[in-house]
Amino acid sequence: MAQHPTEPAAEQTRPEALASAMALLSGRAVGSLSFNRRRALQGLVMGTVGLALPPLTMGQVEIPPGQIRLMFNENPYGPSPKALAEVAKILPKTAYYPGAIEDDLMGLFMARHQLDREQVFLASGSNEGLQAAMMAFDKHGKVISPALTYSDHLQYAEKLGVAVYRVPLRDDMAIDLEAMARAVDDSVSLVYLCNPNNPTGMAIDGDELRSFCREVSPKVPILIDEAYNELTDKPDYTSMVDLVREGANMLITRTFSKIFGMAGLRVGYGMGHPDIVSVVKDNVMAWPNGVGLYAAYHSYLDEDFIAFSRDKILQGRQMVNATFRRHGIESLPSQTNFVYADIQRDADVFKAKMAARNIKIRGIYEGYNTYSRVSMGRIEELEIFDRVFSEVYTG
Ligand SMILES: Cc1ncc(COP(=O)(O)O)c(C=O)c1O
Q1: Which of 51, 285, 310, 364 is most solvent-facing, going by the fewest CB within 10 Å?
Q2: 200 to each of 173, 204, 371, how far by Cα in Å?
Q3: CA–CA separation, 222 vs 370, rounded Å?
Q4: Ligand 1 neighbourhood includes 227 CB (under 6 angstroms)
Q5: Distance from the alpha carbon of residue 193 to the mean position of ligand 1, in angstroms
Q6: What's the mean pLDDT when you consider all of the chain?
Q7: 313 and 190 belong to one structural domain
Q8: 255 CB less than 6 Å from ligand 1?
Q9: In sequence order, what are the residues at sequence separation of 6 or more whose Cβ sits closer than 8 angstroms to the Cβ of residue 224?
Q10: Residue 224 C-alpha to ligand 1 middle, in angstroms?
């Protein structure tokens, strides 16, 4: 079989590779060896030679210094310092498959939400749970979702060949529950809702959503993505977990990536009817990572950190709303750690201008060309945002 030009040469022996790599590092060619720099580098990366790799720059794991990152809905104060201290203690032991920590973490969710074990599952980030749900239901029909919503898993479903029917938002940018209920027929396998919605930040009233779920879930399973529940004005009222407790034909996903500030540690979970949980669990692909589970366990218990983060995020949200308002822009009523607003100009162009000033925000989402989404940073970062936004907006 012909060798792919980018693969390391199979015939290159270890001493040759070593000589190649040394030549690369010293910048000189070696005698009669058929050698090129790319191959030598590949040898280094593939570990075929025992030389030190070029040093890892911290930019590969850290936010570059000076950059203000307001585009991922993370918690800029996270993760919980207590959780990090606990993780540091056990880190040397985490090379092994995780053991009881999985049960311990599940135990916390079961106790907090009064659910049985068969009603809960873990995933490596809520996105994995959402994608697994798409895989689980893709054989049975189409998925219904709001037209503007979190959509990574919906695009994944489409790649699997699932039809996704997107129901337009109402004129006030709220999810149109009545239109979604009307769209349910025998061809539908799943209804997806994100509450509060991303990118609008708007929450559906708890009672309205409860009656929608009571009407629709007997006909078709409902999946509710509650990634931002902890940031809503009334988390228990806004969550539909009480319906899951009652045995409704529903699934809820939650994440440790947002208020818990652990996006890079990849932990999410789902709560739902045992039949749905069972089939979704069968489609989860990654095994959970022990470091993430351990951090999640201790973050979940750190109520001071959660209250602190929530206060700061809500304070930040008022600041960003005030920045917009000063320029005559009314943002949508957010119950999350991001704000969505019509800035009345091309959102991608504006995003690029802000990025040139080292502030990252979001640009256009599917057809909403003049809307920007800004996530909460630290208070001092939002002070800089306020100044730079004003300069760029009026410049
Ligand atoms: C609504 C919503 N759901 C799920 C996710 C994915 O989160 P995770 O990091 O848990 O996969 C996001 C991330 O932005 C989100 O906004």
Answers
A1: 285
A2: 7, 11, 10
A3: 31
A4: yes
A5: 13
A6: 88
A7: no
A8: yes
A9: 193, 194, 195, 209, 240, 250, 251, 252, 253
A10: 12
Nearest ligand 1 atom, CA 257: 9
Tokens representing residue 386 in the block: 């306020």
Is 265 near ligand 1, meaning CB less than 6 Å away? no
Q: Provide the CB-side half-sphere exposure for 310 (13 A, CA).
A: 15
Q: In angstroms, how far is CA 221 from the centroid of its own chain?
A: 23
Look-up of token digits 């060896």: 33
Domain that holds residue 364: 68-76+304-394
Q: What is the tens place of the pLDDT at every residue in 339-351?
A: 999 999 999 999 9
The Å distance, Cα 148 to ligand 1 centre, comes to 15
Residues 269 and 161 in one domain: yes
Could you identify the atom of ligand 1 that is nearest to the CA of residue 256? 10
- Secondary structure class of 178 (helix, strand, coil): helix
Same domain membership, residue 384 and residue 235 = no
Specify if 172 maps to a domain.
yes
Nearest CA residue ID for atom 5, ligand 1: 127
CA of 3 to the centre of ligand 1 (A): 41
d(CA 383, CA 356): 17
Question: In degrees, to the nearest 5, what angle opens at C-alpha 85 toward C-alphas 82 and 88?
Answer: 150
Residue 89 and residue 95: Cα distance in Å, rounded? Answer: 13
Single-letter code of the amino acid located at 279: V
Report the pLDDT value the prediction gives residue 58, as an integer from 0 to 100. 54
Q: Is 338 in the pocket of ligand 1 (CB under 6 A)?
A: no
Atom of ligand 1 nearest to the CA of 194: 1
Name every residue whose Cβ is closer than 8 Å to that of residue 33 and which is 6 or more positions away in sequence. 16, 19, 20, 23
pLDDT at 394 over 50: yes
Cis before residue 79, ω within 30 degrees of 0? yes
Answer yes or no: is the C-beta of 150 below 6 A from any ligand 1 atom.
yes
Domain of 217, CATH number, reads: 3.40.640.10
Higher-pLDDT residue of 91, 322: 322
Task: Please spell the DSSP secondary structure of 150-163, one letter per residue.
Answer: --HHHHHHHHTT--
Residue 61 lies in a domain: no
pTM of the shown model:
0.86
pLDDT, tens digit, 9 for 90 and up, residues 115-142: 999 999 999 999 999 999 999 987 779 9
Same domain, 200 and 295: yes
DSSP bridge pairs for 122: 269
